[in-house]
Amino acid sequence: MSAQPIFLSRPETSGVLHERVVSQPVRVEETLSSERLLNGRREILISHGDRVYRLRHTSNDKLILTK
């Protein structure tokens, strides 16, 4: 099965979008298990830019992400 071309757009300094064709598949996402991320804890802090988020694993087996 051959990969379909993927079109990516990016803004240039002139404000005009230029498209290019990528013939290789682009990996958009990678799955990371919550068990691996939390590593046995019920809660972790995640730094993103200048903010800190709290990821909690609740007693109802849900994940809650808050600022």
UniProtKB/TrEMBL annotation:
Q: Which InterPro entries match?
A: Hemin_uptake_protein_HemP
| Identification of the protein by name | Hemin uptake protein HemP
Q: Which organism is it from?
A: Pseudoxanthomonas sacheonensis
Taxon lineage = Bacteria, Pseudomonadati, Pseudomonadota, Gammaproteobacteria, Lysobacterales
